[in-house]
Design a protein that fits this description.
It is built from ten helices and 19 strands. The protein is of the alpha+beta class and 377 residues long. It has a single domain, classed as 3-Layer(bba) Sandwich (FAD/NAD(P)-binding domain). Strands 1, 2, 8, 9, 10, 11, 17 and 18 form an eight-stranded mixed β-sheet that branches. It has an eight-stranded mixed β-sheet with strand order 6-5-13-14-15-12-16-19, sandwiched between helices. Strands 3-7-4 form a three-stranded antiparallel β-sheet. A hairpin with a 4-residue loop joins strand 9 and strand 10. The longest helix has 23 residues. The protein is globular and about 65 Å long. The relative contact order is 0.17. The structure holds flavin-adenine dinucleotide. The site of flavin-adenine dinucleotide (FAD) has 34 residues, from helix 1, strand 16 and helix 7.
Length: 377
């Protein structure tokens, strides 16, 4: 019997498996896919996430492969109205590391294979929990029966583990939708993030490794056209930057929602990452939140501490992250023309306060006082 069976080989499930293997626990990861997905999805690794990557032993490789975003600009009507400098947050990582999610996952898979060879079971979908006792949980996955001391559902927003247990996922859809894509960087903005506060909706732009740039454009709703040409046209119209549609490496459309489980702990089954909380990708903090969940779950299981502490440790952090994402989305909505100068003046005025700038930098990098750190040992 394995100590911990993990459903889902996304970044959160993989990180949890490594953290447990490092502590001498036997792990097995069940993944429904037969091969990894090549999609850059989550690119922002905030300082707490970088600490987890260091803890699991892939920190130096991630740092070598990523781009350090050390600050950002707010731009409206062609001029900079605010700037953010992350050096104010101090610490070992005074920056957000930009690294495509498929690279993060590859580093984690390789590390897991080093520590627990053969523990990742591909093409093995979770089916159902068959029963739980005080000591173990029995479940079906990949067409076979398994037993483990703990079962961890890290199987994403549409979690089959959560659905099977009948756990609620309360929340709501937001009216904010976005088109995003990665293009060769022709902006000259280098490693700076840029937020273009256009009257018709925000355009966000972040550096990526390989001289690429991620663009995210707020739209009212999808017209069913996610082509690079449509995206490049919207970016040009709102920012003035002319991008090469033919050289685009990825486009996708996403809607936004906030949902959360009432509890992450259900007997000997725990839910974590997106399976436990869906956060809008605006602000890019979902992955960092999930990696910190993995750290907390690994710590509690390895220390044989009461697992019920998980809700107290992590659900509050999820709620704060969700609130930040909602504020970010609000700032990026379309405005009537007359309101734009008022908004710009308000942002310029607020940004001139050193105290407020540092607070915003801390919120943006998830290094504010509300972040509870999990013991590393
Ligand atoms: C467009 C977009 C951009 C984003 N940008 C950012 C960003 O910049 N920064 C950030 O921090 N976050 C971002 N996010 C959020 C981030 O991608 C997620 O928070 C993160 O992937 C969650 O990781 P996870 O491991 O919990 O779930 P997932 O990455 O969804 O992984 C779940 C895994 O479980 C597997 N699975 C599902 N069902 C089963 C089953 N029945 N049996 C076995 N396996 C199963 C899936 O195949 C998958 O491999 C973004 C999200 C989106 C959609």
């Amino acid at each position: 019997m394995d100590d911990v069976a993990i459903i889902g080989a996304g970044p959160v499930g993989l990180a949890l498996a490594i953290l447990l293997a490092q502590r001498g626990r036997s792990v097995r990861v069940f993944e429904q896919r037969s091969a990894p997905v090549a999609h850059s999805r989550a690119i922002g690794l905030h300082p707490p996430a970088q600490k987890v990557l260091e803890q699991v032993g892939v920190g130096p490789a991630a740092q070598r492969g990523g781009v350090q975003i050390r600050g950002g600009l707010g731009i409206s009507r062609g001029r900079s109205i605010a700037s953010m400098d992350f050096s104010a947050i101090g610490g070992q990582y005074p920056y957000v590391l930009s690294l495509p999610q498929q690279v993060t996952e590859q580093l984690l898979r390789e590390r897991l294979e080093q520590l627990a060879p053969g523990s990742l079971m591909l093409a093995s979908a979770f089916e159902q929990v068959l029963g739980q006792s005080g000591q173990s949980v029995e479940f079906a996955a990949g067409g076979a029966l398994h037993r483990a001391r703990w079962l961890a559902g890290a199987d994403g927003v549409r979690s089959a583990v959560r659905t099977d247990l009948g756990v609620g996922f309360a929340g709501r859809d937001h009216r904010d939708s976005y088109l995003m894509g990665d293009f060769p960087d022709t902006t000259g903005l280098a490693h700076t993030a840029a937020l273009f506060l256009h009257q018709e909706g925000i355009v966000e732009s972040f550096p990526l490794p390989g001289a690429l740039r991620r663009w995210v454009v707020r739209i009212e709703q999808t017209q069913g056209d996610e082509s690079p040409g449509t995206l490049a046209e919207a970016i040009c119209q709102r920012t003035g930057y002319l991008l090469e549609a033919e050289a685009c490496t990825m486009t996708s459309y996403f809607g936004t929602a906030t949902r959360m489980v009432p509890s992450m702990v259900h007997g000997r089954v725990v839910l974590l990452g997106d399976a436990a909380h869906q956060i809008s990708p605006i602000g890019g903090q979902g992955l960092s939140l999930g990696l910190a969940d993995a750290q907390a779950v690994a710590h509690l299981i390895a220390a044989r501490a009461p697992i019920e502490a998980l809700d107290d440790l992590r659900l509050g952090a999820a709620r704060s992250t969700a609130r930040r994402a909602q504020v970010n989305m609000l700032l990026g909505r379309a405005l009537p023309r007359w309101a734009v100068p008022l908004r710009d003046s308000a942002i310029s005025c607020l940004a001139s306060s050193a105290w407020l700038s540092e607070k915003v930098a801390r919120d943006f990098t998830m290094t504010g006082p509300g972040q509870r750190s999990i013991p590393v040992a």
